[in-house]
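Q: Entry one of two.
A:
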Amino acid sequence: MSFLMPTLLLLVLLYLGAADFNISSLSGLLSPALAESLLVALPPCHLTGGKASLRQRRVNETKGITHNFTVTSCRGRRDLVSVVYSSGRFTVTQLSAYQVTNLVPGTSYFVSYSVEKGNAVEYSNRVRMTTLPRRKVETLKVGMARTGGMIVITVLLSVAMFLLVVGFIVALALGARK
């Protein structure tokens, strides 16, 4: 029984050490805008300039597709979604992700990175991600109601344009008299 504990600890450490860095799926926080694409977090900053290979394959298949690109530079910590500015009324965010396109709607994929920088190669964990199912346009609920603020701004802009046109006509009339 005493040999079982170090063996389990070694297996856990080997399992955790299998990936040099982690990527994650944020399906609850960030979902794809289209049914044919996924957003995957970029590799970490210490791999800037490295040659990245993103592998994607369907869950029930053995072959996949590889996307190659150079890891972009970053300053400071790079999150999938980072807050650039926040006030009481609105928040500006920046998206740092790689978009995998031309996928089948409503399908699960495994996504993982391998990044070669110099003589070293680092691997990410494998993440399962699912594209959105395709829906009919009639079932989408798009709220296009006018708010009070939109109506006030429209009225103010219309009045300002009317006054501008009247002022232009008056200026032309006074300029023609001289």
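Q: Entry two of two.
A:
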Amino acid sequence: MITYKEAGVNIEEGYKAVSLMKEYAAKTTGNLVLNSLGSFAAMIELPEGYKKPVLVTGTDGVGTKLDIAFKTKKYDTVGIDCVAMCVNDILCHGAKPLFFLDYIACGKLEAQVAADLVKGVSEGCTQCNASLVGGETAEMPGFYREGEYDIAGFAVGIVDKDKIVDGKDIKEEDALIGLSSSGFHSNGYSLIRKVFTDIDEIYNGQKLGEVLLTPTKVYVKPILNVLEKFNVKGMAHITGGGFIENIPRMLPKGLTAVINKNSYPIPEIYERFLSLGITEDELFNTFNMGIGFVLCVDKSIKEQVIKYLISLGERAYDIGFITSGDERICIK
């Protein structure tokens, strides 16, 4: 008789993983969570104070950045990426994150590795005041290779219907404000891994693998503060597709975003790509190029917003403006 364990699934290791994960989930539990991990489903009470509450959802993963985690055997930061990729997306519509769920899949479960992944998720949730309310850990021998994991997540946020940010009021001459990224975030790693082949190389005093694992910045707290004080017309999270794909997503038809690439310091690390013949257009279409989040505001309040963001500890720049036209985006 063949047992489930002999088939490759160790239930006891799964129990151990859940036990370790509960500690990290408990650190994020807010007063709207009505039950704890272990139930068949999580129950969340909607907060008071919303006239017409709208739930806003987003889901994403970490992508091939995980390969760097496998090679360095450092697993406790990519969970932050997973959360950031989701909550920064729903933030673009003015939503405040409420709760988060994760999904982890692997070929052979190692409880400590899975717990380290969730430790990062917990940290990401803490950074945006979201509750980690549940998830799934799937052990699939023969489907994933041993030692490799995948992680994805799902975020739910809330915004008043009258305060949804959707770009509809954006007009000519509005200003574009860019907030610095913390690194590559979690996009473009299929290209990054072809360019940076030696993760033990020392770059600015750190091993390159550590640099490449720098977590995606969570923009929730500073942006929610901005939304309380200023009228923000549109927002864009610079993820896969870089400037080229993401900035136009907030624009009404007939308008174009003009970006001044000399308006902020592009990180020096991108010189490595240029030296290998990768074009600047390709870089702006793949990476965040040092800007992870973009706001569109009336030009009359541009300086006030930038000054306020700087007071919150952000590096914020006047990176461009809106004009008429069908190009959608122009980088010059």
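A: Comment on entry two: The chain has a mean pLDDT of 95. The first strand starts at residue 53 and ends at 61.
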